[in-house]
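Standup notes
- DV: blocked on the single-chain target, sequence here:
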Amino acid sequence: MSVKTHPFDSIYRHGYVRVAAAVPRVKIAAPAENANHTIALASQASQNDVALVVFPELGLAAYTSEDLFRQDALIESTYDAIESVRKASEQLQPVLVVGAPLRAEQGLFNCAVVIHRGQILGAVPKSYLPEYREFYEKRQFRAARDLISDTVTINDHEVPFGNHLIFNATDVPNFSLHVEICEDVWSAIPPSTYGALAGATVLANLSASNILVGKSDYRHTLCAAHSARTLSSYLYTAAGPGESTTDLAWDGQALIYENGECLAESERYPDTDGLITADVDLDRLVSDRLETSSWGDAIHDHRRKLQRMRKIEFELRPRRGAVPLDRSIERFPYVPSNQPMRNARCEEVYRIQVAGLQTRLEATGIKKVVIGVSGGLDSTHALIVAARAFDRLGLPRTNLLAYTMPGFGTSDHTLESARELMAALGVSAAELDIRAPAQAMLEAIGHPAADGSPVYDTTYENVQAGERTSHLFRLANHHGAIVLGTGDLSELALGWSTYGVGDQMSHYNVNASVPKTLIQFLLRWAIDTDQFGPQAGAVLATVLDTAISPELIPAGATGEAEQRSEDTVGPYELQDFFLYHVLRFGNRPSKVAWLAQQAWGDRNRGPWPDLIPEDRRSEYPMQQIEHWLNVFLKRFFQTSQFKRSAVPNGPKVGSGGSLSPRGDWRAPSDGNADIWLAELRAGLAHD
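- DV (later): unblocked, structure below
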């Protein structure tokens, strides 16, 4: 089945799969009753379009049955419970993974039984049996390594058996499951490591895991680290209410992680049955594996073991109707909406930028920097980064040679902001009016604007940008300094810069991998944390309230109040969103549009960073998303790469990527955007 058989508003169309971790209330040695709880939770999950439900270790019999596992009555009753679950699954959508003791080769094994739509797909025995402190599982069970056969009979069904099984959905791309049990993830090399290397994107752990002080945090650490190391989604569910408290206690903690990020966590110490769900982005996991060279190296190093892994295929057959995404998509993927995380992120980015410039100055022995200050976002942020770098170097801020260079479109507002900022920071400030040399250039090339004609084309704009950069480089020569670039990642992505002798060029650019939206938050963070005092903070606030503009055309000259960058290249908040998902994950355009719809389609859905005032909380209908995504795709893939192929040095600040040809992005300058534009048209076509 093609994913395109699902409607556009289904997660199964866009590389997601909904998974669940269940914590049923159990009764010791009561498999029939436990099966009823299991079936009820499985039915609830099925109604919620879940593809996979994972239950706790030995949950059909109860983990704390201890020596009761040696009793025929309990084992036979557990087999009956497995059959009840199997029959019930005929009418349910999810793959069910339940815990049960199984007899094989005249021994007993602690197993996960994988069931789907009336079929037992396989059974997975526990690999590592704890025999320390309060655990003594070897008293009752054998480990997976003791097996001779690779099949086991369960209620007259001969099914695959072993810890080397991988369950692949043939109709949901990249949905591939490996199962392990409790202690397995505590071991030095969890079996699911090999499962992941063999292709499993979803790893499930059926656990009992009694609770101790601090153990909950440790489970988080294990699941986070293991899901990140294996580039996978990791489901963990621990035994809950009903297990024996003779010597131990149980908290029923369930967790769902994706590549180090916690997507869902259950309420601990529940009184009743519990179920948590999360929508996992399988495309993201596969994208990370594709680009991580060490992942392929590990596959090579362990190829003999991986070749022994056994693939079990099944057809999930998810419902074809609308399945809305049940997951918050960050509107600002470069900036966490959570305030403490955001502040920590901003400080770290700022420190990276400062360290980059500091190191460059130390390495060259140069003690002065020349920078053009416009009163806009980018140059403002670059200037405060440079000021802090000079502080750390023990150099006077007067060695920071800042120039504001008014041109034909410079407003009094931004000019005054530039003046006030330079004064507040105590740098060497100068004003260099470029209108006369720009006019001379227009006259020299015979441009109509030289005679006063209202021709405000690219040449008119770039003459001014070129004059500014030309002056900065000559000033740097004159003063023994380097030119500090100010252009940001968003502008590089969109080609919104003047190539060569223009704002595309500098000696070093601290903003090279910082998108426009992040720079806005960095300035807000600098204000909130009083990095440069109240006078500078007031100027930063003014800059944040100023419309983003290159200010190259005189205000009112085109009938508009002022020239706005976003009128041409689109809203930066949208373009940064597109950039992140294209650059970081290589998502197809139709998925990017769908994700943008989830994040930006309704201003009342999902959290907003508290620093965004109510009147600036935008929303965009799909028509606008499609329009601006078309603009992005054409500018990014077709028209702007030649500028990025020659960008100056600058530090990479985040996993969202950079566009340096020496870093994250190498692409031909003479490419085209045809297939991306075509995929967007086809992907957004009516079903």
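- Follow-up: Residues 339-364 form the longest helix (26 residues).
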